[in-house]
Specification:
heterodimer; A: about 550 residues; alpha/beta; seven-stranded antiparallel β-sheet; 10 helices; 20 strands; globular; B: about 190 residues; 7 helices; about 50% helix; binds flavin-adenine dinucleotide; binds iron/sulfur cluster
Chain lengths: ~550, ~190
């Protein structure tokens, strides 16, 4: 039987086995500390990945079933103006949400750190380490990226054929395309295979070419870390003075409850469960939730939003061979209002009306998986035989599309609270998400669409869909809910990622981000986690 | 276009079955009755019924269907008795409908009548579900099973114009090639 009793004499207890927890655990174990990870979900057998891929492709199985998301354990409420589909946004298990993720990994730009208590240079060496840890394939061809000293650990994936179609139009418009840093092996790396083109990266890569954090959990275990699976932490306990956490109380499948003691505690349970756990851990000393003297726990919840548009061309575009993108554009990141100049005119400046807020950063993507996938079309079609084949041939072949992300500014009223009227499988109040998309975010989305339409028009695309201000959804990057800051009255953790209130409680997550930028968060999460581990190491 | 053994092995790999070369060739998935509760039809008849479904759902320009379906189906159920049971029951269900509407087993009907039967059962518009109603199970265990095998294989992909379809590990170079170099056979 699996032993789920607490570890004796642990130096560090980490809650969560996603990338933040796995990288910190590995590092601290390498420094010689005794580390235990408590992970709510199970360990997924690598051998089953192909079957999970089949689930992802075949329509009988809901998307949440691929990684067993949802159910009683994952109940939640969405109370904001916009519905938030939380269970599509995270995975519980060894590896966390990176089992499901896409794997695009960029460094934040220098300006993104403007209101943070640390700046780009503080993170710069950690970014390099994070890139090595994840095995990032990339090239230094992005003129808008922040400065870097070392090459990427792996060569970038060459651009796709459809990128070359875009390249001509972008050239005529003065729009710069460049490679995408991918946490995905372009060659064999760190005992994982090179990409073999299954094309189902999100939600599952059967070959292991796409990085997922179960890889570092394994490495951590080889360095001596103990991982207790199916052990959701119910609350944290502190000493009488309210200065130190003494134990993480966790439940096990046999109905038992255990207390894991440790000298240091790290919360790496993701941007929604971290504030929830703190709120669930309220005490006499912390009536509004543990580490919440500031009242900021759960507040300033931010996500990125998707903007995109696509249609068809009268030539073949060769989509859906792989499930990731090879070209993007950061030209409208630092100044999204700017226009461009090319031989065929350019992208006009932002067309904003006076009362519209100025747009924030935009990242643009050139998709390699536009339009229908023939196998998915066949499985949901209503014809068979030759008729079906005719329909597939008509439907597949000439789709093309662009995507992109915009961010949100921190707003107090966007937040995670507890909904006591609904409980999970352990009787705990579920997280309630209060989320809305404000006018500035809508401006950014509209601007992203404006640029995308200009490029697609230049290409001669018959545009058939646009996802913009009225029809978008979240990109599943949970940020801001335990923000960092030097002022303990308005932030939850300090620049070392330690809570202001408790001397041995740290947070490794995008929940500490002060602002969202418009770039996927996980490389920054990884870099912060390594930095946090160094500070924990110094204290031990 | 010809389906090959390589296609069947590729399709199997897409479903998580690792097949050693030479391990599977001419077997019948329903041969030893392992896990099959119903004894209505003989193993070879069941295989014939599955092929009869393939004849309706696969395009006519394909050849090599029999070996492909046999190899694929065998690999799929080899270590999954529950899955074999699901397929067997779906085949029996098909025969029940066939007998009551057309007085004969499904495999004995001509191709056009088979297509009509699937339509009348509502298999064309059914929501595939392993635990669902009759049409849903037929769609899941037979029709979609065969369509998944075909269209995630290199040859099935090529029929449509993509030599490296989703589910097939066809390498990371095909996405870089243009249509003329891409081996599009249309
Ligand atoms: C569809 C999708 C695509 C994405 N694509 C990208 C991308 O391209 N690039 C990018 O940068 N990011 C992407 N992301 C986001 C990325 O996956 C997350 O940023 C990242 O996984 C967060 O890491 P984490 O370790 O903080 O949290 P997670 O990976 O969510 O891990 C948290 C872990 O904590 C565990 N846990 C939670 N509560 C408890 C508890 N009470 N007790 C014990 N354990 C607990 C969970 O079970 C989970 O395993 C994507 C996300 C999704 C959903
Ligand atoms: S395309 Fe995606 S799913 Fe396929 S091997 Fe490459 S990374 Fe993995």
């Amino acid at each position: 039987m699996t032993d789920r009793t607490p570890s004796e004499g642990a130096d560090v207890c980490i809650v969560g086995a996603g990338p933040a927890g796995a990288l910190a655990a590995h590092r601290l174990a390498e420094e010689g500390h005794d580390v235990v990870i408590l992970e709510a979900g199970e360990r997924f057998d690598f051998e089953d990945r192909q079957r999970r891929m089949e689930r992802a492709i075949r329509p009988a199985h809901g998307p949440l079933s691929v990684w067993e998301m949802g159910g009683e354990r994952d109940r939640f409420s969405s109370a904001g103006e916009w519905f938030y589909p939380l269970n599509a946004a995270r995975v519980k298990g060894v590896g966390g949400t990176t089992l499901h993720w896409q794997g695009m990994v960029m460094r934040f730009h220098e300006e993104d750190f403007a209101s943070w208590p640390i700046d780009y240079d503080d993170l710069r060496p950690y970014y390099a380490e994070a890139e090595r840890a994840l095995g990032v394939a990339g090239a230094a061809d992005n003129p808008y990226a922040p400065p870097r000293d070392e090459p990427y650990p792996l060569p970038a994936f060459p651009p796709s054929y459809s990128d070359s179609i875009f390249a001509e139009a972008c050239e005529r418009l003065g729009v710069t395309m460049h490679s995408v840093p991918n946490a995905r092996n372009s060659e064999g790396y760190d005992d994982r295979s090179a990409c073999v083109g299954y094309g189902t990266c999100k939600p599952v890569c059967p070959s292991g070419a796409k990085y997922s954090a179960d890889h570092h959990v394994e490495k951590a275990e080889e360095s001596g870390v103990r991982v207790v699976t199916r052990a959701p932490v119910q609350r944290l306990e502190h000493d009488d003075a309210g200065e130190r956490v003494t134990a993480a109380v966790y439940a096990t499948p046999d109905g038992e409850t255990h207390r894991q003691a440790a000298r240091e505690f790290v919360l790496a349970a993701g941007g929604v469960e971290i504030p929830r756990l703190l709120l669930l851990s309220k005490s006499e000393e912390y009536p509004d939730g543990l580490a919440n003297s500031s009242g900021a726990v759960g507040r300033y919840f931010m996500d990125h939003l998707f903007a995109g548009s696509g249609g068809t061309l009268d030539t073949e575009t060769r989509q859906n061979h792989v499930g990731f993108i090879t070209s993007e554009c950061h030209q409208f990141y630092d100044d999204p209002t700017r226009g461009t100049e090319g031989s065929a005119g350019g992208v006009p400046e932002w067309s904003g009306e006076k009362e519209e807020p100025k747009p924030d950063s935009i990242k643009l993507e050139f998709l390699n998986y536009a339009g229908p996938s023939p196998v998915e079309m066949a499985l949901t079609g209503e014809e068979f035989g030759d008729d079906l084949l005719d329909t597939l041939r008509e439907g597949y072949g000439n789709s093309i599309a662009m995507g992109g992300l915009v961010g949100q500014r921190p707003r107090k009223e966007n937040r995670i609270t507890l909904d006591s009227s609904t409980t999970d499988d352990h009787g705990n109040p579920v997280p309630e998400i209060h989320w809305r998309v404000d006018a500035r975010t809508k401006s950014s989305l509209r601007r992203a669409n404006e640029i995308q339409h200009r490029i697609l028009d230049e290409l001669g695309v018959d545009v058939s869909w646009t996802v913009g201000p009225e029809s978008t959804g979240p990109a599943f990057h949970h940020m801001g809910t335990t923000r960092m800051g030097s002022n303990s009255e308005e932030s939850v953790v300090n620049a070392q990622l330690r809570t202001h209130d408790l001397a041995n409680l740290s947070v490794a997550s995008s929940s500490v981000f002060r602002t969202s930028g418009a770039l996927n968060p996980t490389l920054t999460i990884a870099a912060l986690s390594l930095k946090m581990a160094d500070h924990v190491d110094e204290r031990l | 276009m010809e389906l090959t053994r390589r296609d069947a092995l590729a399709a199997l790999a897409a479903g998580g079955v690792a097949v050693g070369t030479g391990a599977l060739l001419e077997g019948n998935p329903f041969a030893d009755g392992r896990g099959a509760s119903s004894t209505d039809a003989a193993p070879e008849e069941r295989m014939a019924s599955l092929l009869a479904v393939a004849e309706v759902v696969y395009p006519t320009e394909l050849s090599g269907v029999e070996e492909f379906v046999r190899t694929y189906a065998l690999g799929r159920v080899e270590e999954r008795p529950d899955y074999r049971e699901g397929m067997v029951e779906a085949l029996d269900t098909l025969d029940e409908y066939s007998k009551s509407w057309f007085d004969d087993d499904f495999r004995a009907l001509d191709a056009e009548t088979r297509a009509t039967l699937l339509d009348q059962m509502g298999v064309d518009t059914a929501s595939p579900a392993p635990e669902g109603a009759d049409a849903d199970r037929v769609r899941y265990y037979l029709v979609n099973e065969l369509l998944y095998a075909l269209y995630s294989s290199p040859t099935g992909g090529k029929l449509v114009g993509i030599e490296n379809p989703q589910g097939h590990p066809g390498g990371a170079t095909s996405y870089q090639r243009g249509p003329r170099e891409g081996g599009d056979s249309r």
